[in-house]
Amino acid sequence: MRIALTLFALLLGMVGVLAWTVTLEAPANATGFQHPDQAAMLQGGDLSRHDNLFGPSLTLGVLEIVFFLMLMALAVQHRDRIGSFAGPLAVCGAIYVGFFVAMFAAYRHYGATESPALYLSFPATTALMLFGVGGAPLLLIALYIARFEQWILTPEDRERYEELLKANEGGD
Amino acid sequence: MEAYRNVVTLGCVVLYMLACIGVGIWALRRTHSPKDFFMAGRDLGIFVTGLAVFSSTLSGFGFVGGPGLVYRMGMSSMWMVICSSIGFCLAFFLLAKRLRLMAGMRDFISLPDAIAARYNSESARFLSAVAILLGVLGYLATQILAMATVLRSILSKFEMWENVSIEFCVAFSCAVLVFYCVTGGIIASVYTDLIQGSVMIVAAIMVFVATLMAVDGGMSGTVMTLFQDDPESIGPWGTAGMMNCLSWYFLFALGLSGQPHIITKMMMNRRVEDARYILPVSWIGYALSALLWISIGLTMRALVLQGGHPDLVNADDAAPEFLQFYTHPLLAGIVFAGLFAAIMSTADGFLNIGAAAVVHDIPRAVRGKSLERELLWARIGTVVIALAAALFSLYSPQDLIALLGAFGWGTFAGALVPTVAIGFNWKRATAGAANTAIVASLVIGFGLELFKDYIQVPFGINGGAIALIASLTLFFGISLMSKPPHIDDDIKTVMDL
Hints:
The complex is a heterodimer. Chain A is mainly α. Chain A is built from seven helices and four strands. In chain A, the strands form two sheets. Chain A has a two-stranded antiparallel ribbon with strand order 1-2. In chain A, strands 3-4 form a two-stranded antiparallel sheet. In chain A, α1 (2-22) runs antiparallel to α2. Chain A starts with a helix and ends with a helix. Chain B is globular, with a radius of gyration of 22 Å. The mean pLDDT of chain B is 90. Chain B is mostly helical. The interface between A and B is large, with 86 and 94 residues.
């Protein structure tokens, strides 16, 4: 029940952030503008278009990530399993949120130089998005594979399921 | 070889279509019951299921629309791609075990079967089947039109087919799709997905390598060209901005757990324990195929900015133009085959679940029992749905097609993420909350699209994400305020495993 209430609270938080965002004045280039020379391209223009969005966006992103992590806790929560899963989930979650926040921090200084340092061919903030935010959940995939019989389907679960099948006298 | 580019392309596409027809004939001999037709006898292996899950996720959008978005907006649409890691993770954590266990115990042959059992509610079955059917028709219409448009662009390069009509192309491409879907049902669908997924991966890797060679300095050279023109385009938010990107991230990550053509496949694997390895197979397949999405879009943008390629009139021309001018004819042929593979691997899954909704779920909800001779009706239903979608794609106003196409991912997400992904893990979730979530997602998603000229959502926040957050909030709120529902003992036991 605690996890469900936490999820509900996170959703209300997201609703609150969206409501906050609606009250902000959107600059003309908030979602880009037509490229002056290329017919089918847009440009983003000045980074100042995001000045009033840092707070809501950072908050929304963190809420989204925490929501995802709590959903995984909901999926694993049965019996006492959440106890042993909580630690690794928290560590993976900290790394995941950490990369997201680092991406924001790097973006603050983005565009300051004419020739940014590239990491795996991308500017730091973009590399953190692609490989950090995109890559952090791979830790959770690795946990799913490595600890499947501990957290997802234990031998006791399997036995209980076989008993259910016999009792139902059906299925496969 | 260059002189034969069009012949090679057509040849690759024809070979691929013949392979699909061959699989259809092979699968016909293995399809003897509705369980075979809709659930592949619940006997699929790890690799087949993994490739089927990923290839159903990545439609033709990933081969044409995606590169077009990157060309137009820079890195913005990458949020739809990087979310795949957390998206597949969520889907497997939340659903792979419970759906498969429940399906084995109660012999489900459709997702609405599972919903009806979980909530003890035929109204939930009916509403979910209707939501699936509406989404299927819209999605299928756009996929059929995409297939036909690509086929016409290939055929029109030959003198004898210079003026080939779009109707002919719709009929031809639908004929191949319907043939293997009717003969072999989901068995044909997943085994063509095996071919389709493999072609998509090979095509994407080869195209990625080709893009690295098209611009001086490879990807670094491409990135610096984009940076010098517009730093935001190669920044993490692209041109679309923070809120737009974050709304896409939420919708596409969590929404994967609500896509019926994807999660239905989680009921088909031979052993529930196989989910342990199906997850990484699915994600790796998707990640490799998505290389094409990012690489073509960025490379074409750089080539045009450098003056090395004429300006594009339409961003969706990025992929076809790259294949035409910067790849070996054989690679272009493989990629075009991969494009058909991507479209058909999604369309065949939709056809199958649409047929299940029409001949299995809605009759059960209304009459209390399935139709007699269900396998025969399943085949007829497949043809009827394909025909309806094809006619819809040809003769309906484009706005209506776009409306129902937009009805796709977002509406499935809003309707089925709360109902299935949350509801199958939370015993307090009620049928009333599930029904409300389904209706709310249809109303909000449909409404925002229909009245988009009047309702301006600021900062480009995606309407589907708004619908998903709204339906989730209603789902939790109503469930928490309601009495704990009755759940059958066997379902409750599985939810406790």
